[in-house]
Amino acid sequence: MEREIGFGVVGLGMGAHHAQAVHNAQGARLVAVCDMDERRLGRVASQYSVKAYRRYEDLLADPEVKVVNICTPSGTHTDMGVRAAEAGKHILVEKPPDVTVEKVDRLIDAVRRAGVKAGVTFQSRTFPLNRRIKAAVEEGRLGRLIGVNAWLPWWRSQSYYEGPHGSWKGTWALDGGGSLMNQGVHTVDLLQWIAGPVRSVMGRYGAFAHDIEAEDTTVAVLNFSCGAVGTLMTTTCAYPGLPQMVLFYGERGSILKEEDTLKVWRIRGEREEEEREMLELYGPRRREGPTTASDPMAVGSAGHQGLVEDMVRAIREGREPYITLESARHTVEIVTAIYESSRTGREVFL
Predict the structure, then answer these.
(1) How far is CA 135 from CA 67, 125, 255, in A?
(2) Are both 20 and 129 inside the same structural domain?
(3) Which domain holds residue 209?
(4) 3-state class of 47 per DSSP?
(5) For the whole prediction, is pTM greater than 0.90?
(6) Per-residue confidence at 166, pLDDT binned at 50, 70, 90?
(7) Contact 80, 56 (CB under 8 A)
(8) Which of 7, 2, 10 is CA-nearest to residue 25?
(9) Number of domains, the chain
(10) Rounded Cα gap, residues 12 and 61, in angstroms
């Protein structure tokens, strides 16, 4: 039996979900957690009976920690990641990998120089429905792709952006923006992962319902390299928080989903039973309680667990993780280009 691989988690806001995912993952062992907030640190460390570090350098010095899950504010990911790589640790970094393309490139270079592995937590790519949609698009089953449309009408109260754990949110330096870079980045990643690279963007943003430095609402037009045209809307102003909607349509059919629930799967000239079968697999289920549309901590750990287990296999098999820094770079490029377009009033080519 192979030995479990030791993980350490730094940043115990979203990192609390990572700790749970590592604890539940096959082949992984949660060794230590790290946070400057002693209450959060003590709570998570005692929950899993693991070592607690207030200083990041102490976590990196722990020989049992082979992989570091970086869950600190987005604008610190590269600095934290470079230090981990230089210490010989593999990295699983929360989304986005950082807030500028230049910083992502610096992290890529550090990982390559150190010869370690680095994965990104864009867990939407692991969901079965999203993988089925990607396969249908790539196999040309929708015909020539025409439209790629996404709508993220979420809600965050002003208190989300305040207090000791919220003041970095909605800032350019540490959050890289607002509703687009923080909440919407998963949606942007899904669009580019399924439909392929974006060639150019035009965008507009503003802060309408929150006292924050960055934006709480963004709209954009995306021109994809495949010829499709896309639209994107993200907001944290849509009380009480409504589901993400994503639509792909081409010459031969359309696929519409709401969060991780399939609404429409209709392809001309193919078996009529297929939509019923797909709806039985991925269609509406009864749900109770809050979702991430209104509560950022309502995220489950299942997707995270899959990425932890993938990292374990990548280390053992000597391969790249499922979601590499290189594959996530274009997502940051798209987001920052939308912001640049809004500031300049011009179309931005990527």
Answers:
(1) 31, 12, 12
(2) no
(3) 125-294+332-349
(4) helix
(5) yes
(6) very high
(7) yes
(8) 7
(9) 2
(10) 19
